[in-house]
Amino acid sequence: MLYKLFSDFAVFLSLLSAILVCNNVYAIPATTLKITGNGQNGVINTAYQKIAKDFELIYPNIKIKVQLQSDRAFKRNLNHILSKESDFDIVIMHAGERLNQAVANKNLLPITDIWNDRRLADNFTPAMQRVVTHNNDIYAVPFSYYLWGFYYKKPFFEQHNLSVPTNWEQFLTLLKTVKSKGVDPIFIGTKNPWPIGNWFEYLNLRLNGATFHNRFVNGQISGHNEKIAMVLSYLKGLIDAKYFNAVHKTKTLTGGLPMLHREKTAVILAGSGYENFLPDFVRKDIGFFEFPVINTHQAKVQVSPIDVIAVSAHSQSPVAAKEFIAFMADKDVQTVHNFAIKQLPVNVKSNTAIEGTSKTALDILKDADGLTLFYDREVEKTFGLQNLAIWKNFLDSPNIKQAQNQMEQARQEYLDRICAKTPCTN
Question: Is the pTM of this model over 0.70?
Fold first, then answer.
């Protein structure tokens, strides 16, 4: 594997040479930077601790303190993390609505100066730059992304002569065949409700396209719209056929991985970074495929969340914090870090000679007609939570009209909140 060429010493020398050119190594006063973000397991925490140590080798007068939080805690605490009362200097967060809101609330520091001075734009595609640009200023460095698709166990597919589906008809045939063998076709866990959002998002993208889906996310599409009914009808078809596991509200998404390994379930719709939760002896047997095509007239848009790193507007050490941000933009740092967490580097100059599900995800993304950032990350928080609760309950009681009424009520409440802040015109 070519990643082995990137020894710690080689990365260190590369970074040291780049930064020494900037003549800033000894110009920053001694300080400690506190970093927080979403870190759901030990692999992710270890990867960030390593980044901190590598940075401290180059900047011995800057100490890094990494304090990651669980997904639920981070989302709950984000407003406080970004407030004046917090002492965090740097935040690892999701691109999308939360980043946009933080910028609108003036809680993030623009990094346009160091972005231009270090020519960081050369490292990222125009699409990735747009994700972190607001009113012509740059507010974050994108450093990691991944793809949502289906995990499956390759030996199980081989044993039962199952093929990876590319369209909806093939997908339904796969599910029907698996069901006939006494195996749950699809695992879903909704203890954390956001996985059901990805089902709705992909069905909406595949049936109605990205433009329609983006309008839906922004509250511009009525819950009573016939295209929304069509999305729900496709989901209802899977539910009525009993293709999902019966117990889901007490399960997390990662809880399905042992079921997949033990051949108690056939596929799981999850992010490609979930390979982190697989032990080495299991990983070689796991495959990955993209969400099947339904309407051939719709562009093949993939759901690909992007992680970014930003500087708090309230940081007491903004110069040092910006140096760390620039460090996270480096091609070698992104290569080694993303290899460790089984995700993909955003820097176009990073090494992507990878294997396994990450290689499959990268190949799919290279062929994508466009990307969305994941429903839970793009939608206004309250509006999103309301819809996620509706769809979660829909899994147990798939009443389309009732769901549409509830979705429209949630949309109207969202519009009322928006118009209360900024007067709306009819």
Answer: yes
